[in-house]
Amino acid sequence: MRRTTAWRLRRPWVPLAAAAALLISLLPALHGAGTALAATPTADETGNTATVFYYTKTRNWSQYYLHYAPDGAAWTQVPGTAMETGCTDWVKKTVSLGTATTWQATFNNGSGTWDNNGGQNYALGTGTITVKDGVIAHSDPCGDDNGSTDPSPSPTSSSSTTSATVFYSTQNVGWSTVNLHYAPTGGAWTTVPGIAMEQACPGWFKKTVDLAGAAGLAATFNNGNGTWDNNNGANYALTTGVSTVKDTTVTKNATDPCASYEPDTTAPTAPTAVKATATDTSIVLTWDPATDDTAVTGYQVTRTGGTKGSQVTSVGSTVLSESGLEADTTYTYTVRALDAAGNISAASDTASATTGEAPPAAAQGTMLGGDPRKDPIYFVLTARFYDGDSSNNRGGNQDVASGNAANHDPMFRGDFKGLVQKLDYIKALGFSAVWITPVVLNRSDYDYHGYHGWDFYKVDPRLESAGASYQDLINAAHAKGMKIYQDVVYNHSSRWGAKGLFVPTVYGVRDSQWSWYYDEKQPGFEYDGLTVEPTSGKSYYNGDLWSTTEPTGNTCLNWGKPTGSKSPEGYTLYNCQWPSPTSGMFPSKYYHQCWIGNWEGEDSRSCWLADDLADFNTENPTVQNYLIGAYDKYIDMGVDGFRIDTAVHIPRVTWNRRFLPAIQERVAQDWGPDKAQDFFVFGEVGAFVNDKWNRGSVNHSAQFYTWKERKTYTDDDVQAALDQYTYEENLGTGNQPTSTNAFLSGNSYHTPDHSQFSGMNIIDMRMHMNFGDAHNAFNNGKDSDDSTNDATYNVVYVDSHDYGPNKSSVRYTGGQDAWAENMALMWTFRGIPTLYYGSEIQFQAGKTIDCGPSCPLATTGRAYYGDHLEGTVTTSDFSKADSATGEVATTLAQPLVKHLQRLNQIRRAIPALQMGQYSTDGVSGGGMDFKRRYTDTAAGVDSFALVAVTDGATYSGIPNGTYKDAVTGDVRQVTDGTLTVAAPGKGNLRVYVLDLGGKNAAPGKIGTDGPYLK
């Protein structure tokens, strides 16, 4: 944990000008050169069709038009085709897609005001679709039959002799759309996803269905976008009459939960303090939260300006970040607030900003998507990996004192150019995801690692080069089929604050003692860590941070008065000379005001970790806006996930209310709901003990962060954090939710229940702390899995840039055999295997991981790795080096590298090892032995494997059939449900795969024998 921007161009804007003639003249440029205008397709043409419903209550336009283009076809004539009345608050249109199965759509009022999904257009498919305030779902809000296969009369009718009225609670699942998928007793199921339920009152959806004489029904519920509540695989058994379903509890013959509800007709207050800030051709808009008599559920932002007309965008947070706008253009914004009943506030006061010139930008990046469990992770400190461009190397003000200068080893040495050049090395090892340290502009004494963020909206120029921007790195990785996971920090900034939010002014004086330290202020010079200020000759210039004159609004007591103490050099120290939480230099609005006193107490979530890590007041909306807006920009660039630093130091309720939904919202807006499911978020919850619950505190345990909240707290985020802490601590460890998502049911895979998933996965601290011995890590890891929402997504590593096992301060020093055994376990057990750079050759084994500037980096676990990568390497596939020359060829020939390459080959070929649930039931032998299975019926995938790491095992009660070992090729016929495996030896393993034929045939031996796998 201790550790110039080229934003991608957004997708082309749809035509937005008010005048149709101007729009038509612009269309070829905006939709693709040479694209002809098409006549409006009609629904009765042959081919695929889609019916789209559009929500009108929060728009209140007089007319509604659908402007669209099936993929591969031209856009309709502006403004599109008029939509028809569907039912109250909805309009609809059925369109022909021809042979296309996907299409892009936008909506407008026919007079120049557009909803184009924040510039992304809506990506839609076939069938029935709803678009409500920016959210896409798949259901019929007007209650049509929707293709039911039920042979009984219409499922929405209640005219027959028996009916059932079903109420479903969304209070804790957080869905905005609910479908009822059901089957009357003895009857057929409705067509997936079922029939739409109507919102009856806040937190409850309702549907009455005809049972055609049946005495009951089996029911499941879903949100229309692939998330289901099927009673943990058992379905719900409901009866006639009124039933309620809340948090998997069914109440039969229930009273109407909405009977006493008075319809909400009161609109929220208008948002205030609307502020627009432009950087290049990007604008960040923020505002203070509105209030409502129930709750504000979202906001509607209207933007005017430029040549493309007005645009309306729906957002869930109090920040909107837009990129790729027109240069030198003034844009004006107003914001309205919405509540759950669809009431909409008056418009806020306007806010305006004028864009500058567009910076040169790399080609647009696109998030890869795909299940993150398929992708083993290689973790690099970018600045210490490989130096592709020496011109951006910087040693900082500790270069000499640290001893780095004597080694010609500046702290900022590696860069994106070097990482791009060595992506083939990482791919040749077999990794398809790269976790990189934070990229934002840092500012501290020793900030090469990236965890001292200062300007969160700017990529640190010490990492970039011409043709090797951050965007270029993302694009280069994606071109090789590799993901980029960006390390992000929400908890703290540098000790110098955060540019654009608050930067403290410290007392300084250029006298005979301090002129060496305080650089003279140079008007117009802006710190970026790279550019050398001419007068001082420093890239680490600080002239903008200090003042002899007390600043306006100063709250630091005794400004500039001597403290009575001296520095180590004997110089006079002054009050307000150095940032700290208790000095009064940081306003409580933006930063917390205390030091942590109890690392397992509530204050660990609301106080400073260290004097160089100024702790954000993350419960403040302005701080939330700043961080959400910043990280939206990196999502826009196409990163594939976030590793969240110091996640435990922010209350879970703040993550669940603010930051995690904002991430999902932005990814869905940019890349669609399917890829939003794949955006991988994994948090560092630093529980450095060997017990299941961190010293008995649930709030400080890693698995706690994988769950949603179980109750509703006050709207005040500060009080909610305190209430949540107290509530969960009082419940204790014995009353936390449990999950079977990681476990097989016998030998069978079951659909996991993610309805209570928070959106944050975790680094497996339990296994990490116990990797002094692989057996210990295995047994401890299993012990925590029932309290984690889904442990198959755990990120598993032995050591990192912070600690080795058992909170060791040195890089893992267990030896090559132990490393081989650790890797064999990580690459076959549940979770995502992750390797810290260089561990493939036991780089810096036993060396202190981090000693700050008190020793040279070359002597630590964060040493420069590039010397081992000199030469060339090319690869055409994972785990395969097609060619290699120089020192990197020697590196690739090392025993653990060969072991790692083959492990990645085996894992990549067997779905059960990537995404499977596991069980040790019926497995005897006492070692690291287990069975895993992954089944995806829709994709036709069924993969069952028996794994034995190091030790022998007997597997009882398994399916009969042919099993083939992926390591040796050995074939076994099981006829009595039992298979016995001899001990393969330390670092070796056996993976017997059940041969199910066809695409699920066992692969047999994978790869060639090496030093351990044989």
Automatic annotation (TrEMBL):
**Compositionally biased tracts (Low complexity):** 148-163
Pfam families registered for this protein in UniProt: Alpha-amylase, CBM_25, fn3
Instruction: Tell me the first and last residues of the signal peptide.
Output: 1-38
| Native species | Streptomyces mangrovisoli
Which InterPro entries does the UniProt record give? CBM25, FN3_dom, FN3_sf, GH, GH13_cat_dom, Ig-like_fold
Which Gene3D superfamilies does this UniProt record tie to the protein?
Glycosidases, Immunoglobulins
Asked whether the keyword GTP-binding is assigned, the reply is: no
Which cofactors? Ca(2+)
* SUPFAM superfamilies registered for this protein in UniProt: (Trans)glycosidases (SSF51445), Fibronectin type III (SSF49265)
- Segments for region (Disordered): 135-163
Which superkingdom does the taxonomy of this entry point to? Bacteria
Q: Name one GO biological process term.
A: polysaccharide catabolic process
Keyword line: Carbohydrate metabolism, Glycosidase, Hydrolase, Metal-binding, Polysaccharide degradation, Signal
Q: Boundaries of each Fibronectin type-III domain copy?
A: 267-358
Protein name as it appears in the record: Alpha-amylase
PANTHER family the record matches: ALPHA-AMYLASE 1, ALPHA-AMYLASE FAMILY MEMBER
Record's PROSITE patterns? FN3
* A single MF term (Gene Ontology): metal ion binding
